[in-house]
Amino acid sequence: MAKLTEAQIETALRAVPEWGESGDAIQRTYQFPDFVKAMLFVDQVAQAAEANQHHPDILIRYSKVTLTLSTHDAGGITAKDFELAKKCDLYFSAVAPPPPSPAAAAPPSGKRRKA
Q1: Is residue 68 one of the residues assigned to a domain?
Q2: In a domain, 13, yes or no
């Protein structure tokens, strides 16, 4: 697989906005509510990585997981890295869905306003 140009990397990063370029790799840190959810995520990433024979560097700090993706045979960032990044973002959404918005979380007051 061919290494992407800087312009191609910038374009591809728009599709995964939480990811950033770090040297010859792309990187993202995910925050989970607890260690168990972080490990569920890491397990899903490991299974996808093994199936694709494309293994990220993984740093685990309790409820934070940092993934660093680079295609070592190509000497840098390739489309393969962005494919795995998108899968990881989907796994994250499934394991740690975003918290409800404050308006949605507030219970209705049930009180009527007096005229």
Answers
A1: yes
A2: no
Residues 55-73 have pLDDT tens digits of 999 999 999 999 999 999 9
> What is the domain range of residue 31?
21-97
- Number of domains present in the structure of the chain: 1
Residue 109 banded pLDDT, cuts 50, 70, 90 = low
Give tens-digit pLDDT for 10-26.
Answer: 999 999 999 999 999 99
115 lies in a domain?
A: no
Helical segments of 1-115, H only? 6-13, 35-52, 79-95, 102-105
C-alpha distances out from residue 104 to 72, 85, 92, 99, 107, Å? 45, 30, 22, 10, 8
- pLDDT reported for residue 96: 81
CATH number at residue 89: 3.30.1360.20
Length of the chain, in residues: 115
